[in-house]
Design brief:
Elements (H helix, E strand, L loop, with lengths): L3 E2 L6 E5 L4 E4 L5 E2 L1 H4 L12 H16 L3 H13 L6 H28 L4 H12 L7 H62 L5 E13 L9 E12 L5 E11 L5 E9 L14 E10 L6 H8 L6 E11 L4 E3 L3
Antiparallel strand pairs: 1-2, 2-3, 3-4, 5-6, 6-9, 7-8, 7-10, 10-11
Length: about 325
């Protein structure tokens, strides 16, 4: 380290921080850096006034430094003038102070992170504490964070499992809704097809003789011997989805041995004129009859006339239907 020499007596000058002046050890005279000049330095060289100004500024900064960055800047300034007094030692001290503050800042950051519950924060805190195991209670806090990390990961795993289950349930619900929509569409199509089929389906029309009677009219004109009648009451139920105007039915009468006695064709409703006007879902009563004025020539009529209708096998076949909207069913009979 180079020493300033007193211009009065040649004694050594020392820097007084409180006075911010150079003071002679021998005569006590005081001097500014600008008043000394290189001529007063020792034979090995000298210190410029500029270096002293840096020294004074670095000392001033060290008195107010409170952050690691400020201490590092101060250290850099002292390192610029290592030949001035104890600048190198002061630079080292500033570096230590900066490192101390950085460690404290890192410790505080780790403490803040350690107070959170998520695994990411705890992992970061563990990393910071592990980088300064000998600082304060870092080692203890690191172990605490490691224990909390296990719990946090367990909780996060449970939360993730719960989330996955919710997501799976959500997907199942979406799938169910999609299937339900498809099923609804299919059901709608089927219903439409069935409804369309039911609209004109003759199998949905039921025909049945509900009552019969026989009679003889001796005065029936124009017959000399009168006329014999078999009267039938029909009940017709419309199970289709359309109204019926007109229809024809063939009725088969068989005995208990299954032998056909007679078949009878009947018309209900006036084709081309009057209408049955049988509404969808309704029933109607229709009357018809068979007549014969020469029964001796018609064995089938006589057998049916004399039969007990409760013992006969009676069946029906719908051969023609005209609906009110113009649709027609015909089996070609």
């Amino acid at each position: 380290m180079l020493i300033f020499k007193c211009p009065n007596c040649g004694g050594n000058l020392k820097y007084d921080r409180s006075l911010k002046l150079l003071v002679c050890d021998a005569c006590g005279s005081q001097h500014t850096a600008a008043s000394i000049g290189k001529a007063s330095f020792d034979e090995d060289g000298g210190i410029s006034a500029h270096s002293l100004e840096i020294y004074e500024k670095a000392l001033s900064m060290s008195a107010t430094a409170s952050t690691a960055e400020a201490w590092a800047t101060t250290a850099e300034m002292f390192e610029l003038i290592p030949e001035v007094f104890e600048s190198q030692q002061l630079a080292d001290q500033c570096r230590q102070n900066a490192a101390q503050l950085k460690t404290e800042e890192k410790y505080n950051t780790a403490v803040t992170l350690s107070q959170k519950d998520d695994s990411s924060s705890l992992i970061h805190a563990i990393q910071l504490f592990s980088s300064m195991p000998d600082y304060k209670d870092s080692a203890t806090k690191q172990r605490q964070c490691e224990q909390r990390l296990k719990l946090a990961r367990s909780d996060e795993q449970k939360a993730e499992l719960h989330r996955q289950r919710r997501e799976a349930a959500k997907q199942r619900t979406h799938k169910f809704i999609s299937l339900l929509v498809v099923a609804t569409i299919i059901l709608g199509v089927i219903t439409l097809v069935v409804r369309q089929a039911r609209k004109y389906d003759p199998d949905l029309i039921t025909v049945k003789i509900t009552d019969t009677s026989t009679e003889y009219d001796p005065d029936a004109s124009p017959y000399i011997n009168g006329c014999w009648y078999i009267n039938f009451d029909f009940k017709i139920t419309n199970g289709t989805l359309s109204d019926i105007d007109y229809m024809t039915v063939v009725t088969y009468f068989k005995d208990d041995d299954g032998k056909l006695i007679m078949q009878m064709s009947s018309e209900f409703g006036g084709y081309g004129s009057s209408s049955m006007d049988l509404k969808s879902g309704d029933s109607i009563k229709q009357e018809t009859y068979l007549s014969e004025h020469q029964p001796e020539k018609n064995e089938s009529f006589v057998e049916l006339y004399e039969a007990d209708f409760d013992e006969l096998d009676v069946s029906y076949k719908i051969t023609y239907v005209k609906f009110d909207d113009g649709e027609v069913f015909s089996d070609g009979y």
